[in-house]
């Protein structure tokens, strides 16, 4: 990408979370370490992209309540129990969703379906996104110091492995009828 505009890295940092969040975080952190962009702007732009790509999903759940076919599910006992658990511990639910791939979209939609206070939801999403990218950037910089230029191929491998392990855990829990939240 040396011939490309340096602004493409920043654009990618913002828009990639809309496509695949974990790849965006690991890729942007790697771009930061390898000098494809400045760390602070990359970090902040990625954070904005993560938050924007997450908060709109709330409205899918909220909108589902307007459709009678879906609204009746809110009255079911198991859904009411899940609603209570999620709304009593929203930060825990959002942290679980943030760090376990495959659980984000259903969790964010559920918050809309359960009509959580939207500004509070947005703040908690921003906090969990900040925590997640801080951890990934920190680890990437640590590995960058150890691995040098090898970081370019090692970090995507670590990110891919993380996603596979997390998905395996989620699938195992679902197989045993244990919801992730």
In short:
This protein has helices at 7-15, 21-33, 39-55, 58-64, 68-71, 77-88, 90-99, 104-113, 118-147, 151-175.
Radius of gyration (Å): 18 Å
Strand content: under 5%
Question: N-to-C SSE series?
Answer: HHHHHHHHHH
Q: How would you describe the shape?
A: elongated
Average pLDDT rating: 84
Write the layout of secondary structure elements.
Elements: H1 7-15, H2 21-33, H3 39-55, H4 58-64, H5 68-71, H6 77-88, H7 90-99, H8 104-113, H9 118-147, H10 151-175
Could you walk me through the main structural features you see in this protein, from its secondary elements to its overall organization?
The chain has 181 residues and is an all-alpha fold. It has one domain. The protein is 76% helix and 0% strand. The chain has ten helices and no strands. Helix 1 packs antiparallel against helix 2 (21-33), helix 2 (21-33) runs antiparallel to helix 10 (151-175) and helix 4 (58-64) crosses helix 8 (104-113). The chain is elongated.
